[in-house]
Amino acid sequence: xxxxxxxxxxxxxxxxSLILYILAALLxxxxxxxxxxxxxxxxxxxxxxxxxxxxxxxxxxxxxxGLKLRPGISGAIDPNTSWPPVINYCPDFLSLKKEGxxxxxxxxxxxxxxxxxxxxxxxxxxxxLLLTSTKNAQGYATDALSKNFTWEGIYDGRSASTRxxxxxxxx
Length: 171
Known about the structure:
elongated
């Protein structure tokens, strides 16, 4: 950032709920500690203050996405990054199995409505999900709905993503 430019702050850039949360945390942590300290229990007051601040910090990090007091600063979350950063070749809890030149995702744990795949079995379209390089997320969504599985980044159980599923290399 250029040292000669002073960033302007508008009220839309400030997260007032975060500021209120910090003030409430300090008021409850400090006020509770002061109340306990008035009863001459110093160790309990210190323990309460440390515990209250720890609890407020724990929940504050989960409820707020970062300090937004200046434009361009948004904390640890980058809104331009898609989630998940990497998509698996197979849906959640399924295993990749290669049969000849075809790739199948098979259920080795019994989490879908597909037949359970055992070690000596041969993967096929009847007991697995055939992967193709041309099928998009919407195409896999119909399979997911009928075979009762989800696929992080492709199908969440309700809607299909616009991302293209990965396809394993033939090497």
